[in-house]
Amino acid sequence: xxxxxxxxxxxxxxxxxxxxxxxxxxxxxxxxxxxxxxxxxxxxxxxxxxxxxxxxxxxxxxxxxxxxxxxxxxxxxxxxxxxxxxxxxxxxxxxxxxxxxxxxxxxxxxxxxxxxxxxxxxxxxxxxxxxxxxxxxxxxxxxxxxxxxxxxxxxxxxxxxxxxxxxxxxxxxxxxxxxxxxxxxxxxxxxxxxxxxxxxxxxxxxxxxxxxxxxxxxxxxxxxxxxxxxxxxxxxxxxxxxxxxxxxxxxxxxxxxxxxxxxxxxxxxxxxxxxxxxxxxxxxxxxxxxxxxxxxxxxxxxxxxxxxxxxxxxxxxxxxxxxxxxxxxxxxxx
Length: 334
Prior knowledge:
Elements: E1 9-12, H1 19-34, H2 41-48, H3 55-58, E2 59-64, E3 67-75, E4 85-90, H4 99-113, E5 124-131, H5 135-143, E6 147-158, E7 173-176, H6 183-193, H7 205-218, E8 227-232, E9 235-243, E10 252-260, H8 269-283, E11 288-294, H9 301-307, E12 311-324
Parallel strand pairs: 10-11
Antiparallel strand pairs: 1-2, 2-3, 3-4, 5-12, 6-11, 6-12, 7-8, 8-9, 9-10
Helix pairs in contact: 6-7
Domain N-acetyltransferase: 9-181, 172-334
Pfam families: Acetyltransf_1
GO molecular function: acyltransferase activity, transferring groups other than amino-acyl groups
């Protein structure tokens, strides 16, 4: 990245005080792609505080005349460390100047430094996701050896008419999250439910617990009364963990995590959780709800959401590059 200096650019790691400038950059890119802001200061500040995420080693900022014009971050926080991921943005006014390529090079170098963390025989795949509208980013990554691996939908529904009353299978009831006793059981239930999610890699629950504790403590939209647990007796069999507001549309609620554990699937629990969540969000004044989903979900989640009246609003493309061949520990099929 030294070549940036010769063109009037400066670069350094992010610092806590950079969060507002970073959000302005991110939203300039989202407005360019699809016409609206997508990020909030609270969300980015929360992410930067994630346990194990080190701004000094895991971020790079690029400035032009003291204005932040590009950003990249690298993530690889949970064992077995085989699926590192990076994310970056370049301001529309500063594209096609080689900045994006240099940030990708930095991310790949950072990923190579983390290879010793993974099992010696494991395949390491570096991932990145871009909005479908961002053709320049797709072309850049494909030109550097990345391939399209998956598509994900942002789906939404508008609460125009009556929301069906949830129909619970016999023996299944719903209750809300109790922060004093439910966190570890919820994290374990989510890990179990998402075993069959494309790309999932199983890892230690202890690491996930630390991440969840931080997210709950720092998410301004967290409300335990909007975390709905489907239970059979004392067993958590499914969850719908909602945020009060979507970062992109504050009038809309957001279903952050919805999953049903394998033994309890195909019984209508996911649809019942969705209907219950929608009704509760509307009681709180939300005009609709959104969520993210694998466009070709291995478990058919996208079809369940369509049955609940949701439709795709936007597509994100996941691209990947194999950094080291080996045993693929990711879930790719059922």
